[in-house]
């Protein structure tokens, strides 16, 4: 791979996949003999040092008595060999015999082994599984996720400032348009980009979102929503997200024709995007918690495709593999700034996680040119 052909944002994820030390050193030489960019050289040197350290480490014996419970947890999480975990558990019992440490090892052991009799393990809510612990979310209104729900569309929260759509909103609408066009072509669907606008006197802004890529614009306007407050904005967004589903959590006060696709009113959005601004970060966390789903924050790349997972927590059994379709892959920079992680929000056995949500760093995508072909508007 020639680093001179890539920008730093594109190069980070690719470099992380390179395990060959010679190839990394060759890439560094090419960069030094070419553009000689400091950030790229730092990225490559960091990766070289990491690969060198991994090669030197090799297999090590683990003495649990030398580790804190937190350190032991980090070590145990990476072990997928039953015999190693059993030895580690025996060492802990002979040594400090810490209750929390043993629980960590036993939990990982159960995940690796799976159910010996092949029967599905009964899944209990946290309040029943661990009655000795405090459960501050036990009375949370929407703590139970949907099962067998229907999900459609990509929703985009459209933030405004001083009566205008901010640029990050327009960027997300353009990217959402691109993603859903590809999605519909790939899966033969007719799902849409839905713009969500909340505030005072925002009907005109809702119309404007359609010019930037939305198929449908839904809005709630009220003088009391002139300024952003996370509690009412969260309630309004979630009420619209559940509108018309008829579920026990549907608090809408009317029909939701705008949520109807092929005669069916879906339960919740399939995907949601928020700008990673101060208000957007706040709202995205509140909304996704209320909808009982997950959130990838501060993303700079998005794409939709299938993925194969072998994690027992997602497949239901050790050694099993499962393909998940229509997964929103959400790329975000790690804390170093030189490497990237791809976050996935996947269903688990007996529990669905929708919408798949992300907040997007402003400037991550191109600012689209407006197109004045309006489609649909709903207030």
Describe this structure in a few short sentences.
By secondary structure, the protein is an alpha/beta fold.
Distance between the termini: 51 Å
List the strand order in the largest sheet: 9-13-8-1-4-5-14
Mean pLDDT: 82
Radius of gyration: 24 Å
Structure characterization notes:
Helices cover 37% and strands 20% of the residues. The chain is an alpha/beta fold. The protein folds into 3 domains: 3-57, no CATH class; 66-113, no CATH class; 151-378, Rossmann fold (3-Layer(aba) Sandwich), CATH 3.40.50. A 7-stranded parallel sheet has the order 9-13-8-1-4-5-14, sandwiched between helices. The chain has a 3-stranded antiparallel sheet with strand order 10-11-12. This is Electron transfer flavoprotein subunit alpha. Residues 154-375 form the Electron transfer flavoprotein alpha/beta-subunit N-terminal domain. Residues 121-138 have a biased composition (Basic and acidic residues). It comes from Halalkalicoccus jeotgali (strain DSM 18796 / CECT 7217 / JCM 14584 / KCTC 4019 / B3). InterPro entries: ETF_a/b_N (IPR014730), ETF_alpha_N (IPR033947), Rossmann-like_a/b/a_fold (IPR014729).
């Amino acid at each position: 791979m020639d680093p001179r052909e890539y920008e730093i944002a594109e190069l980070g994820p690719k470099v992380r996949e390179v395990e060959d030390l010679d190839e990394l050193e060759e890439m560094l030489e090419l960069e030094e003999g070419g553009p000689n960019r400091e950030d790229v050289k730092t990225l490559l040197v960091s990766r070289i040092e990491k690969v060198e350290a991994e090669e030197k480490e090799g297999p090590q014996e683990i003495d649990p008595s030398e580790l804190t419970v937190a350190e032991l947890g980090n070590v145990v999480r990476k072990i997928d060999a039953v015999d190693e975990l059993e030895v580690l558990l025996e060492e802990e019992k002979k040594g400090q015999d810490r209750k929390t440490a043993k629980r960590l090892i036993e939990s990982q052991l159960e995940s690796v082994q799976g159910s010996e009799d092949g029967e599905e393990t009964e899944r209990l809510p946290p309040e029943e599984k661990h009655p000795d612990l405090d459960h501050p979310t036990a009375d949370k209104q929407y703590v139970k996720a949907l099962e067998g729900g229907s999900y459609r569309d990509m929703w985009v929260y459209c933030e405004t400032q001083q009566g205008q759509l901010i640029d990050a909103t327009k960027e997300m609408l353009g990217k959402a348009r691109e993603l859903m066009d590809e999605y519909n072509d790939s899966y033969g669907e007719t799902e849409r980009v839905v713009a969500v606008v909340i505030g005072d006197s925002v009907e005109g802004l809702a119309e404007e979102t359609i010019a930037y890529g939305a198929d449908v614009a839904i809005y709630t306007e009220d003088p009391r929503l002139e300024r952003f407050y996370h509690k009412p904005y969260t309630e309004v967004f979630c009420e619209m997200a559940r509108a018309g589903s008829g579920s026990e959590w549907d608090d809408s006060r009317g029909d939701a024709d705008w949520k109807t696709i092929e005669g069916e009113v879906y339960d919740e959005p399939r995907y949601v995007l928020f700008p990673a601004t101060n208000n957007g970060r706040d709202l995205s966390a509140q909304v996704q918690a209320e909808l009982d789903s997950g959130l990838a924050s501060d993303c700079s790349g998005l794409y939709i495709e299938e993925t194969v997972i072998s994690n027992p927590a997602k497949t239901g059994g050790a050694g099993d593999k499962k393909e998940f379709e229509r997964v929103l892959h959400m790329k975000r920079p790690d804390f170093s700034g030189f490497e990237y992680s791809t976050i996935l929000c996947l269903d688990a056995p007996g529990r669905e996680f929708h919408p798949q949500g992300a907040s997007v760093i402003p400037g991550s995508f191109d600012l689209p040119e407006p197109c004045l072909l309006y489609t649909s508007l709903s207030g």
